[in-house]
TrEMBL record, chain A:
The keyword Cell membrane applies. It holds the Pfam family ExbD. Keywords: Cell membrane, Membrane, Protein transport, Transmembrane, Transmembrane helix, Transport. This is Biopolymer transporter ExbD. It is a single-pass membrane protein; Single-pass type II membrane protein. One of its GO terms (molecular function) is transmembrane transporter activity. It comes from the Bacteria. GO terms for cellular component: plasma membrane. It comes from Salibacter halophilus. It is found in: Cell membrane. Its main location: membrane.
Automatic annotation (TrEMBL), chain B:
Keywords: Cell membrane, Membrane, Protein transport, Transmembrane, Transmembrane helix, Transport. This is Biopolymer transporter ExbD. The keyword Nucleotidyltransferase does not apply. GO terms for molecular function: transmembrane transporter activity. Its main location: membrane. One of its GO terms (biological process) is protein transport. The chain crosses the membrane at residues 20-37. It comes from the Bacteria. It is a single-pass membrane protein; Single-pass type II membrane protein. Coiled coil: none annotated.
Amino acid sequence: MAKRDTPEINAGSMADIAFLLLVFFLVTTTMDSDYGLLRKLPPPLPPETVEPPPIKDRNVFVVLANANDQLLVEGEVMEISQLKESAKEFIANPQRKEDLPAFKVEEIPYFGKTEVSKQVISLQNDRGTSYDLYIQVQNELARAYDELRDELAREKFGQSFQYLVDTGQKKKVSAIKDVYPQRISEAEPKNTGGN
Amino acid sequence: MSKFKKDGGDKDPAISTSSLPDIVFMLLFFFMVSTVMREVELKVSIDQPEATEIEKLENKALVNYVYIGEPLNAETYGTASRIQLNDAFASVKEVGPYIETRRAEVDEAEVPLLTTSLKVDKETEMGIVTDVKQELRKVQALKISYSTREKMDADKF
């Protein structure tokens, strides 16, 4: 009997098959991962609500956005680019001004007795406000908090706030968050734009 | 005279393509691993706003999507902003039941982790978004994410 060679399988079309699969996956899939601003909505109001105690004017930073996408911040017209700086000044109140938020002394790990601002940012928008402006306002306010936290983290721990978050140093992160708690309150919706 | 000169035959040697399938398979596996199946067919046009202070949504199995924007097929559906849940248009009233059905599908322990991702076109008026948010509050779906694109911020770097 003659010695039989195992015939070689022609692999030339293998590439075509693989390409076909590749194209299929390219078409049916998306690469994008979902990024976004994470927020927590307030729980629904019970039907008979007790009026919450009023918050002093000096502790509230009022941001109004109207149907024409104009901003009114603390009674003054403002551009979106200025919002972050004025929010930062409000939250930190570095000169302890009388018309900016009051402070309450609290015991915070790592920091000991610290003055914590009683600040609240109140955001109110109209039904006609564009979503783009709303997101920008949310973003600028978040940036104000983030920058203050970052400054504090660098001063206290010598590391950026993001680094502390990324490396999972939860205690330090929560201590910093206790010093600058993010309090953005959204008013119950109103229709003031007349449309 | 030259030693290296080939004698005769100007034929190019055939390039071996036997490793081509391997290369393509490598690409294929990369795409299979790094991508997810497109979840729904969008019926509204969504151009997301840009933001810098964004976080990545983890665990996509626990995310419910609500799409709001102008219908792609404006001749049939008009240009007013509409809400899309799954593959169909929906009214504001249907958002609550949608969240509840999704909630019933997941493990009880994971219910608090459910996040609602609002994918909203930037030209949308806040009215409809506010309505959806009020509806979400009613069904206690309080974790939300305003889906945005990442903006390259000059003064951050």
